[in-house]
Amino acid sequence: MSGDRKIGENFDAEEASDIFDKLKNVEGKVKPKKEDSQLKKISDLMSEARYLEGKGNLAEAIELYKQVIFALPDSTKAYEAIADIYKKQGDVESEKDILKKAISNCNKNDEFKKRLDEIN
Fold it and tell me: Which terminus of the chain faces fewer neighbouring Cβ atoms within 10 Å, N or C?
């Protein structure tokens, strides 16, 4: 070691803070940062799906909504969005299928039941 090195000068404080936070997270003492949360990722997927839907990329939007459902199986908004897309496309069978899945997975499924009854 050279004699001219001073304590605390050879590291980035922000990087050290991040490393310290990660170490504390391993021990379970600190919550993960908000931007790293699973809900944030789901929210981003929903936003991207809505954007694609608005641009007319319905197949891609459906795939993103399905990813939301995979991560959050009781996501009424994702089920509603997929059912609406199928309705717009005139795909009655796919709309029925997604409504049946929504009924079985969502707690607030009365609206889905009502919608399915209207189709039948």
Answer: N
